Amino acid sequence: MSDPLHERDAAAAALELVARAAGPYLAGLAGRPVHDRSRDGLLEELGGPLPERGDGAVRSVERLLRVGTEAATHSSGPRFFHFVVGGSTPAAMAGDWTASLLDQAAGLWLTSPLAARAETVVLDWLKDLFGLPASFGGVLTPSATLAHVAGLAAARSWWAGRHGVDVASQGLAGLPRMPVFSSGLVHVSTRKALQILGCGRDTLRTFARDDTGRIDLPALAAALEGLDGAPAVIVGNLGDVNTGSADPLDELADLAERFGAWLHVDGAFGLFTALSPRTAYLAEGVERADSVTADGHKWLNVPYESGFSFVRDPEALARAFGAWGAAYLPGEDDGRVNYNMLGPESSRRARALPIWATLRAYGRSGYREMVERHLEVSAHLGSLVDQAPDLELLAPVQMCVVCFRYRPPGVPEEELDALNARLGEALLADGRVYAGTSAYRGMTVFRPAALNWRTTRADVELLVRVLLELGERVR
Q: Domain of 370?
């Protein structure tokens, strides 16, 4: 096969292959292991030298589907509990296919009014969903990390401006180190964003009152007092990946107001607690933040890659990312929103379309119902762990994350970490359910997260059965 021009009539046939494969694949997710290592050999079929003459659209897609449907990690299914990962609702998946079909250049209004309008709409809908002020500005990003880059870039611009420097044009040279303070719950994505922004990954200081990471407010207040009025950034965390714990956002907002600091909130998945009366107290105060970030491919259940960043000052993102001075691009006074001037990406796909589709399909009540179901499923898992003699619950279940370890009677404390590490490896190798290990309070632990729209009580019950079964083998 040569020039794709000769295949202009084959696109529909290739897409039809995907559509035909989708039905059986999705219908079979509940019965599949999350990962079947016996199928890993198929991955070799993706390799080899670059073909001189290609196979054509139909044959290449046939191969990709044959390998992918067998050898993929089936994280779209209901039993992928490793990390904090959602799935893709039916509407979101179809919206994502639509985004690929239309292939919009989504950065400028000029290139795609459709993409720009859809992004504006979904940002308004998301603010409404989370209880954020309608006056906030925002932008969609590929991930929570890039959402942090956007929000913290706005914070950096504000901070440098307090020192009389336009950091977007002049950079950081000559400026002092930007003080960034948080609790022990801070996620590595926040540090990575600071690294990308040139502020330094390890310059962030944490203030924790115990080994759970809970914030030491008096120590934080003393650190802010010690700056003698110099500006600083506070990072609040709404949803720790090990336990689902959250910082007291209202109290952090009080400190930010008292000391004139910027409050940035990492709401990667915890922002969705605002949807349920059972957990809304955890998100109290988020509306007082200067910037707020969250992930779409977690509890919103839209495909990778999806994140969003909101800022109190609608002009803050434009100051951080706009004003390129390129003659072929619209100027700042264009009068139309150009999202590539509000975030870290210049070339952008229309990632608003799957978000629009799923929010239009299920609305506020549908998402509230799903979040409350996941809260119930996680509480059920916590109860099962608490009742099992061989399992130990290590933290209260507050959101969708359950933190525990395998602790059969008679095993010495000094052997438990190695035992749990072996059990974690065995669980992933088994593949029926997926939940790896992490470290919490110096212990090797499991921290499965139930936030896939397909997940039910039966799925976490299977997780417990498989863990106990494999635990007997690895002891």
A: 363-474
Cβ(435)–Cβ(73) below 8 Å? no
Peptide bond connecting 305 to the previous residue in cis, omega within 30 degrees of 0: yes
Q: What sign has the CA pseudo-torsion 49, 52, 54, 55?
A: negative
394 contacts 418 by C-beta, under 8 angstroms: no
Domain end (from 297, 326, 359): 359
Length of the chain (residues): 475
Residue carrying structure tokens 């999202």: 339
Same domain, 191 and 206: yes
Q: Is residue 11 part of a domain?
A: yes
- Please give the backbone phi and psi of residue 307, each rounded to the nearest 5 degrees, phi first: -145, 170
N-term to C-term CA, the chain: 56
| Cα–Cα distance measured from residue 278 to residue 6, given in angstroms and rounded to the nearest whole number | 58
pLDDT at 467 over 70: yes
Distance CA 111, CA 173 (A): 36
Q: Based on the domain organization, do 260 and 338 belong to the same domain? A: yes
- What pairs with residue 180 in β-bridges? 233
- Count structural domains, the chain: 3
Both 160 and 181 in a single domain?
yes
Assigned domain for 251 exists? yes
In tens, the pLDDT along 208-235 reads 999 999 999 999 999 999 999 999 999 9
| Rounded CA separation 448/349 (Å) | 31
What backbone torsions phi and psi does residue 265 show, to the nearest 5 degrees?
Answer: -115, 125
Question: Closest by alpha carbon to 141, among 323, 355, 361?
Answer: 355
Dihedral through CA 425, CA 429, CA 433, CA 436, nearest 10? 20
The reported pLDDT for the residue numbered 360 is: 98
Strand order across the 262-266 sheet: 137-141, 307-311, 291-295, 262-266, 233-237, 180-182, 205-206
Question: What angle is formed at CA 274 by the lines to CA 307 and CA 276, rounded to 5 degrees?
Answer: 125
Closest CA to 451 of 142, 91, 96, 81: 81
Residues 196 and 185: their CA atoms lie apart, in Å, by 20
The dihedral region occupied by 45, where left means phi > 0, alpha psi between -120 and 50, and beta the remainder, is alpha
CA distance 448 to 380: 13
Residues 310, 444 within the same domain: no
387 shares its domain with 469: yes
Contact 244, 185 (CB under 8 A): no
Domain endpoint, select from 19, 36, 70:
70
Give the separation between CA 296 and CA 95, rounded to whole angstroms: 14
Is residue 112 domain-shared with residue 63, that is, in the same domain? Answer: no
Same domain, 8 and 22: yes
The pTM of the full predicted model, rounded to 2 decimals, is 0.95
Residue matched to tokens 């589709």: 357
The tens digit of pLDDT for each residue in 393-405 reads 999 999 999 999 9
